[in-house]
Amino acid sequence: MLLDPGFNLTLRPMKYPDFYEMYKNSIKNTWTVEEVDFSTDVSDLRNKMT
Question: What is the pTM of this model?
Answer without folding.
Answer: 0.44
